[in-house]
Design a protein that fits this description.
Blueprint lengths: L1 E7 L6 H12 L9 E9 L4 H12 L3 E6 L3 H19 L3 E5 L1 H16 L6 E6 L9 H10 L4 E4 L2 H13 L8 E3 L21 E6 L8 H14 L4 E6 L5 H10 L3 E4 L14 E4 L8 H8 L4 E4 L15 E2 L4 H12 L5 H15 L2 H19 L1
Parallel strand pairs: 1-2, 1-4, 2-3, 4-5, 5-6, 6-7, 8-9, 8-11, 9-10, 11-12, 12-13
Length: about 375
Amino acid sequence: MITIYQLITSIHLGGSENVAFQLTEHCKSNINNNNFKFTVVELYNTENNYAHEKKRILAEKNIDMITLFKGKKRVSMFFAPLKLFYLLWKNKPKIVHSHTDLPDFVLASSMRILSFLNIKKPAVVRTIHSTQLWSVHPKFAKFTESTFHDDHIASVSLGALNAHKKLRIDCKQPISSNQKVIYNGCKIPEMKKHPFKTSNKKINIAFCGRFVLYKGIDTLINVINKINKLHQDIFVFHIIGNGDYLYDILELQKKYDNVYVYDSVPNISEKLYDFDFIFMPSHFEGLPLVSIESSFAKVPVIASYAPGLDETFPTDWPLRFKLDNENDILKLFENIKNNHYDIDELKLKAYNFVSEHFSFDRMIKEYSNFYLDIYNNEK
């Protein structure tokens, strides 16, 4: 049995967490009857409907779930490394696969304790999910990166790979020789019943993701205010997710009768089909699954020019805008209102592009082989 920990920040609606869940549920190995045994490990607990539902689904599939700390997020940064160290020492997983910066930091702390006590360490896989790494806490970056040497790096995009190379150079650390790009893959979604209050007489625009600045939540709020003044009774905005700016989003819902707010929705890819467009005003991304899933669901994406997000579209995708150009954004919405685009052509173009580049089966196969190569080399 090849035991693998999938280390995530917490169970919430995020691309990195979804990738971890997909690998946990679908990666398989039958070499010498030596199958993978996955455990999902979160740093701290998130209390919302999505988290509870996801834990129920994992339990039904006999996938173990561990929470390192059940208190507040900030305090977890102290206690989570101690609990993880204990688990690594007691259970001795063959591989720990870390997703994003905070799990990397906690894992680095635990690995240092193992080194200090001269205890054998597991192999480390880190998936780089973003093109912006440790921009707020550079000292944490130096501590984290100096812990890892020639670990196994899988970046979700070329942008993320280059960002991590730059981080290593900035931290005066050698670049790992074990690195590659493995694009996130998505299944073609089924059409399931959804909870959204869509209108067949208006244009339905959806935002799906965390309510944080890098996802462009400030731009979203500003655009809704402007659009509702310029084009009354044309658009309906559906805002799906949770996060730091929840209060601001709920205030927006109170202000307008064409704004609907929903908590994070499990398996959102199966419920996107009824929207007319997805709006993604991101400042940066790693490789956003929502964009790829929307194209598979044949829902066109209105998107900013953002690192990582760019790689999910054909180079001549017409529904893109510059974040610092408000007129650029408003012009797109005006064009949509005036039926300027051939929507069927856009749907087909996006669908063909993601089908070629973001196959779910290819992602699962690449990660499965990645794990096997690491296991065989570590034996």
